[in-house]
Amino acid sequence: LTTELLEIIRGWILTYVVVSTEQAEILAAWELHTYVFDAFEVTPYVFISSPEKGSGKSTLLRILKAVACQGRSSSGMSGAALARVVEASRPSLFLDELDAQMKGNKETAENIRGILNSGYEPEGVYTRCVGKDFAVRDFSTFCPKCLAGIGELWDTVSDRSITIEMRRM
């Protein structure tokens, strides 16, 4: 059954985007991982990268989100919102246009980087002061994440990622 599922997902990916068969197989396995990630000590991220726009990154994100467990996507989310979304529902996150956020507001970028740095393992948390009394609160950051952007990713996040490089046709 698992082999059949992997083949179906791989074929579906290859129907809509141009990636290698090997890349489609990796993505299909990652998709199944989104349903059982809690059973693992780490969850690898997927980073869909290209040197230029128009390479199919966003299309691939939409395709993967359709199959993933509790897929949730965003093209721009604050660190606070990201932490609360993960804490509330432990979704499979699909973050597009990450390159723009990396180059944008420095504080927002650092908060997102911090969440991504910690969110690959079950003990990963994002600690913030909340409420009128500024109580310290840990937000869980552990969930599968698929990231997309032009260029390079932060080194510390890249180390936790499987990179899928795409090219414009």
Describe this structure in words.
With 169 residues, this protein is α/β, with parallel strands linked by helices. The protein is built from seven helices and seven strands; from the N terminus they run H-H-E-H-E-H-E-H-H-E-E-E-H-E. It has a five-stranded parallel sheet. The radius of gyration is 16 Å and the shape is globular.
Content of β-strand = 15-25%
Q: Kindly report the average pLDDT value.
A: 89
Based on Cα principal axes, name the global outline.
Answer: globular
Order of helices and strands: HHEHEHEHHEEEHE
Which runs of at least 5 residues are low in confidence (pLDDT < 50)? none
The helix tally amounts to: 7
Kindly, what is the distance between the CA atoms of the first and last residues, rounded to a whole number of angstroms?
Answer: 34 Å
| Biggest sheet layout | 5 strands, parallel
What strand line-up does the widest sheet have? 2-3-6-1-7
The SS-based structural class is alpha/beta
Topology, number of strands: 7
Radius of gyration over alpha carbons? 16 Å
- Please estimate the helix content: 40-55%
